[in-house]
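User: I'm new to structure prediction. If I give you an amino acid sequence, what do you actually give back? Let's try with this one:
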Amino acid sequence: MDESNENSENRDRSDEHSETRDFLEENLKNQEPVNQETESVSRMISKMIHTSQLDPIIAIRRDESTVKELKRELRSLIRETKLDPEQLQSLLGSLTSPVHLTQGPPGTGKSYLGVVIIRALLIIRSFWIKLHPEIGNPSILVYYIYFCCS
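Assistant: Good question. You get back a string of structure tokens that encode the predicted 3D arrangement of the chain. For your 150 residues, that looks like this:
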């Protein structure tokens, strides 16, 4: 085999690898990576949905396709907001019980977490309304108290 044929074959292989890499990058770009952390968050979300005492989540968990969509939306919210483990536990706890308390010293992200909780509640409310339009547009009640000791 002469050198020009060998170079041509190498270019063809290189082009094939480049096309494959481009194809994979394009098709995997918007998918979340499957790793231990993602699986753990998915399990935590599933447990929250299964054990929640909130009426909207109880109604949603009766419809498997809506549960799948809700899980996807909550995973996306958690990934986007980059919560630390304690904030994630508090978020999921707030979606499990009708009454929830988040506490901690200054600078630990309580106010930020409150915004994330509201965003999660809005997502849940939208799915609840889709399943049960007769409920109208229910309000979300959040009570925020700031305590500071001197």
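You can read the tokens as a compact description of the fold. Here is one thing that stands out. Residues 1-31 form one domain.
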